[in-house]
Amino acid sequence: MSQIFKQGLVCPLDKNNVDTDQIIPKQFLTSVSRDGFAEALFYDWRYLADGAANPEFVLNYPEYQGASILLTRANFGCGSSREHAPWALQQYGFNVIIAESFADIFFNNSVNNGMLLITLSKTNIELLFNRCAQGPQQWQIDLASQEILFGNNAAMGFNIDPDIKQRLLSGLDFIGSSEQLNPQIAAFEAQRRANLPWLG
Amino acid sequence: MGQTLYQKIYHSHVVGKLNASTDLLFVDRHLIHEVTSPQAFSGLKLAGRAVRRPDLTFATMDHNVSTQRRSLDAAGETSRKQLEALAANCDEHRIPLLDLTHPDQGIVHVIGPEQGLTQPGMIIVCGDSHTSTHGAFGALAFGIGTSEVEHVLATQTLPQQQAKTLKVEINGDLPEHVTPKDVILAVIGKLGTAGGNGYVAEFCGSAIRGMSMEGRMTLCNMSIEMGAKAGLIAPDDTTFAYLKGKAHAPQAEHWDAAVSYWQSLHSDADAVFDKTISLDASSISPQITWGTNPEQVIAVDEPVPAPESFSDDTKRQAAERALQYMGLSAGQKLTDCAVDVVFIGSCTNSRIEDLRAAASVVRDRKVAPGVRALVVPGSGVVKRQAEQEGLAEIFKQAGFEWREPGCSMCLGMNDDQVAAGQRCASTSNRNFEGRQGRGARTHLVSPAMAAAAAIAGKFVNVARLEGAAQ
Question: Fewer CB within 10 Å of terminal CB in chain B, N or C?
């Protein structure tokens, strides 16, 4: 049976190579907390130098308030490994990001926070931007059947790594799953000590 | 079929299988710093978990520290709290820490190799994307996020899937004044910032063999800027000579066995790479970025490209936006552009060889009036050596500020920032919008090119500066 994983309003961010310095600038990285990053999201684009909201930045458009699906272009999340980037996106309200491609570290960090990152061909991304150009979009994401549902029976399929799909659907504890292999880890350590003793 | 170096290291670290395509890999070294670790330690505490292998974990303070004085509170209140949190966490979990009072403290990717913590065949991770630096030693080294830092602290392992392999072959001799920084910028210019996504890159060829360890580190450091998961260079006699005698390198009784193991770490002759690119070293000129990502790069004497010259729509739009942000126009020569700030430092270019190259340009010259120029050595070890060799004196006499070690103006998390609209010649790794400060305009160059810009007060081909009368 089909099951809706996420649904919501789509915000189109029409840019390539959005780096993590843009997603959350460095001055917010001195925190020791995992929370409180929503306001910092896209800070230099979202706010003018005097702190007022920048009316020209898409996130500030009235029609995209409350968006929870981010649509963007290629190489989203490139640059620094800061997990503050997915934290800021998630705390703002985005739990699904659709792009032509993602930087590797950002992708892993997002999955580790239970976010769904969907990669589509350039052609399909173009089709989705065209849909957004027609007016604000509410889409549903069916992870089980791997489809984006546009309403009126229109849909677009997507591929996802089966291991990641399983993790997102089951909500398995990241560290707990690996701890199941504790005996193997201990065996590996013993063998390493015997074969490469200088490694400790 | 033979294996690539990456595949050999990957397979030798598989602890077990987690899922159809996901393996659990053992981590030999876990390097941590103040910015990406506090939430990981909080997570451990919350779940009641311990650090499994504090003996394989090493910490330093680098991102957030003041480079003007050695005091935890010198870079502001929130920085102080973060630095204190790292010290407390290391103390509680018995993790060795090079704090600000330690004479060898420095940037995590400078001190790892210096202390001999980085060795061939290892898997090395750190909550920092420039962990790729350590690949210069034939280690599989990559950046991770904070959830993964917590995972490694708890289990000394990390779930991974096998990446694709990319061979970057660079043969021939580098022209005079062309450095590893120019090579990697040229590679990124050719491949693009996403060209390496999903790949581990192995650099090989005669130009690589001829490079020092410092040069190889610069090359691997910026592999992440083409999107590669990691950069790798097979270890050789240059690697072994660098490591011999380092504090944490294998000591006498294990040295021969270690070297013999390290000599097996190379891609087999019949190994097949998923993708190969090659460059002729002799065709590379000193490079400079003109835009807001590292693929927007040209040889210093070339004009800034016109957006129309990009056939790809999105690249054209990116170029338009970049020119606007950078305050440049198509066709302009960067050699006509004045610089306001010069930064020599960062995990890319703050090692002794980088400082020697910059000092050889600066010697008996003065920083141009109105230019603010900084040298931030990568570690206490580099700083002391540069002082002993007389390099620090050369910089100071020329009008450079000579600072304490740290990440500094590469990302401006401390008070070393570039003001809005200012143009900076920087030896760092990222020219992103706002990276060095909101509105700051960053041009990535080699240490010699940065030094030349400081002297000339504008960008200049370092080869020409050398020819000029002093």
Answer: N
* B157 CB within 8 Å of a chain A CB: yes
What sign for the dihedral angle of Cα B277, B279, B285, B286? positive
pLDDT for the residue numbered B440: 97
How many C-alpha atoms does A108 have within 13 Å on its Cβ side?
25
Does any CB of chain B come closer than 8 Å to the CB of residue A183? Answer: no
Q: Provide the pLDDT for residue B313.
A: 86
Per-residue pLDDT, A3: 63
Answer yes or no: are the C-beta atoms of B41 and B153 closer than 8 Å.
yes
* Residue B468 pLDDT: 47
Instruction: Return the H-helix or E-strand segment holding B70.
Output: none
Tell me which chain B residue has its CA closest to the CA of residue A108: B145
Tokens representing A200 are: 């400790």
d(CA B265, CA A65): 54
Contact (CB<8Å) B432/A79: yes
With CA atoms as reference, the chain A residue closest to B122 would be A199
Contact (CB<8Å) B227/A177: no
**Residue B251: how many other CB atoms lie within 10 Å:** 12
| Terminal alpha carbon distance of chain B | 58
Distance between CA atoms of B362 and B388, rounded to whole angstroms? Answer: 17
pLDDT tens figures, A85-128: 999 999 999 999 999 999 999 999 999 999 999 999 999 999 99
pTM, 2 dp? 0.97
Contact of B250 with chain A, judged by CB distance below 8 Å, is answered with: yes
The answer for A 12-41 residues in CB contact with B (under 8 A) is: 15-17, 19, 21-22, 25-27, 29-34
To the nearest whole Å, the CA of A30 is away from the closest chain B CA by 6
Residue A159's closest CA among A109, A127, A126, A118?
A118
Q: Give the closest-approach CA distance of B398 to chain A in angstroms.
A: 31
Other Cβ atoms closer than 10 A to A151? 10
- Pick from B49, B85, B197: CB nearest A103: B197
ipTM of the complex, rounded to two decimals? 0.96
The tens digit of pLDDT for each residue in B264-287 reads: 999 999 999 999 999 999 999 999
Measured in residues, chain B has a length of 470
Q: Among A69, A141, A57, A135, which residue's Cα sits nearest to residue A98?
A: A69
Q: Is B241 on the interface with A (CB under 8 A)?
A: no
Name every chain B residue with its beta carbon within 8 A of the beta carbon of A105: 129, 142-145
Residue type, B382: V
Q: Which residues of chain B have pLDDT under 70?
A: 466-470
d(CA A187, CA A182): 9
Residue B206: CB atoms within 10 A of its CB come to 12
**Which residues of B fall within a CB distance of 8 Å from A189?**
26, 156
Q: What is the DSSP string of B27-67?
A: -SEEEE-TTTSHHHHHHHHHHTPPPS-GGGEEEE--SS--S
DSSP state of B174: P
Q: Which residue of B has its CA nearest to A107?
A: B145
Query: Which pLDDT score, from 0 to 100, does residue B92 have?
Result: 98
- How far is it, in rounded angstroms, from Cα B165 to Cα B7? 9
User: Taking the CB of residue A180, how many other CB atoms lie within 10 A of it?
Assistant: 11
